[in-house]
């Protein structure tokens, strides 16, 4: 089988060249320290991934405001106080010709109780679903607060550029604040930030345009966006296509396609093939901007076909890269053909049902911590192993699920 398509370089509108088609999507590493600074562990992890041959590394979500965290252990970029650490992180992720972008995020109402007493959202629509107990009800943002959030995203992007990273990715997927604005279910506003789709995408467009003005044309800006929220009154495929076309016209460098949120965690299913490839192909037929599709890739043949068949320019593999950090090198040498993701169990069916997604996330956090400390990946189906890792690291706050 040839996999040469995966090793062709890709030039973005910014002029940056990504050496191959492998994308390490954002995976929250929870390796920030108490002051939300990147730690040496986090830096080691990215050096390791860069050395493994991936062309584009996107960091786990970094928050734009220390008062709006998605979880304990988030890195925050809101001023220049950690510039030295950020520079070291950027350099580590640029080894071996790799690029590193920072994913910038605001969680909105998906900010759990252990970090947010009073989360904010476009409208005061509480979380629903199995995980809702973990979240306090949000309150509606004022217009001034929305403007302040736009300024904070832009400021963070400026600092990311100053620290030497190659780009930023705006997180508008997985049910976080910008996805909440896009979704008619979460956004019930009647001002210029709610109602029709032009209004619902306004905050995202303002953030993109503000960033572009601040960082210039030669710095890469990507957007991660859902194909759909998988709920009847949420952000639909038709909406998604319209937003993507608009972003493309505005000059975004890369669009990463995913789907789901905390209420419908479709993006971290363990079974099934590449989840969003068909949608990606539909998008690609309509825009010139390069796209990346993330979710469910497990075979070298499937990754190659997605690019070779023209469904996408880049292939994002998150969990596989936490198990096989040198995946691109292993594909190049023919060593990697396919992998099955582990289905972990506590041995108690009802408990698995309740905390299944948390078990999965703990498992990949454990692998990232092992890679960062020079240990080999530890495959298991025993859920108590990652759970005890997370309990040791974070105490009982791990019982607050989950992140995507
Ligand atoms: C431990 C973990 C943390 C994640 N954190 C983020 C995140 O910070 N931002 C994001 O956009 N997606 C995050 N995701 C979702 C992944 O980027 C990706 O969309 C998802 O895992 C599906 O891709 P895969 O099938 O290749 O794993 C996370 C996934 C995992 C497993």
Verbal overview:
This protein is α/β, with parallel strands linked by helices and about 400 residues long. It is about 35% helix and about 10% strand. It has one domain: TIM Barrel, CATH 3.20.20.70. It starts with 9 loop residues before the first strand and ends in a 10-residue tail after the last helix. Bound molecules: flavin mononucleotide. The site of flavin mononucleotide has 27 residues, from helix 10 and helix 12. Flavin mononucleotide binds next to helix 10 and helix 12.
CATH superfamily: Aldolase class I
| SS-based class | alpha/beta
Q: Given the C-alpha coordinates, what overall shape results?
A: globular
Strand order within the widest sheet?
Answer: 3-4-6-9-10-11-12-13
């Amino acid at each position: 089988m040839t996999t040469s398509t995966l090793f062709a370089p890709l030039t973005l509108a910014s002029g940056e060249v990504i050496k191959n088609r492998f994308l390490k999507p954002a995976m929250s590493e929870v390796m920030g320290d108490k002051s939300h600074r990147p730690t040496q562990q986090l830096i080691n992890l990215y050096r390791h991934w860069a050395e493994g041959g991936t062309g584009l590394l996107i960091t786990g979500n970094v928050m734009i405001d220390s008062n709006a965290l998605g979880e304990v252990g988030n890195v925050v970029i809101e001023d220049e106080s950690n510039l030295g650490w950020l520079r070291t992180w950027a350099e580590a992720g640029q080894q071996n010709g790799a690029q590193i972008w920072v994913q910038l995020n605001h969680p909105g109402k998906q900010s759990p109780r252990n970090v947010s007493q009073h989360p904010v959202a476009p409208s005061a629509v509480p979380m629903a679903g199995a995980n809702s107990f973990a979240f306090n009800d949000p309150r509606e943002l004022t217009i001034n607060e929305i403007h302040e959030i736009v300024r904070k995203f832009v400021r963070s992007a400026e600092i990311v550029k100053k620290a030497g990273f190659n780009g930023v990715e705006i997180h508008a997927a997985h049910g976080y604040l910008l996805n909440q604005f896009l979704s008619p279910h979460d956004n019930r506003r009647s001002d210029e930030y709610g109602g029709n789709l032009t209004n619902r995408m306004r905050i995202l467009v303002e953030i993109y345009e503000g960033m572009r003005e601040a960082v210039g044309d030669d710095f890469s800006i990507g957007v991660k966006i859902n194909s759909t929220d998988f709920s009847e009154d949420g952000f639909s495929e038709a909406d998604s296509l319209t937003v993507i076309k608009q972003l493309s016209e505005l000059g975004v460098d890369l669009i990463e396609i995913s789907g789901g949120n905390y209420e419908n965690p479709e993006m971290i299913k363990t079974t099934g093939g590449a989840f969003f490839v068909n949608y990606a192909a539909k998008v690609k037929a309509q825009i010139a901007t390069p796209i990346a599709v993330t979710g469910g890739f497990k075979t070298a043949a499937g990754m190659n076909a997605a690019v070779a068949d023209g469904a996408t320019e880049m292939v994002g593999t998150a969990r596989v890269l936490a198990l096989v950090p040198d995946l691109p090198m292993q594909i190049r040498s023919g060593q990697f053909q396919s992998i099955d993701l582990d289905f972990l169990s506590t041995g108690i069916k009802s408990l698995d049902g309740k905390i299944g997604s948390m078990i999965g996330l703990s498992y990949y956090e454990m692998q990232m911590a092992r890679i960062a400390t020079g240990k080999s990946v530890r495959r298991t189906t025993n859920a108590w192993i990652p759970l005890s890792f997370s309990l040791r690291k974070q105490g009982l706050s791990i019982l607050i699920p989950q992140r995507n």
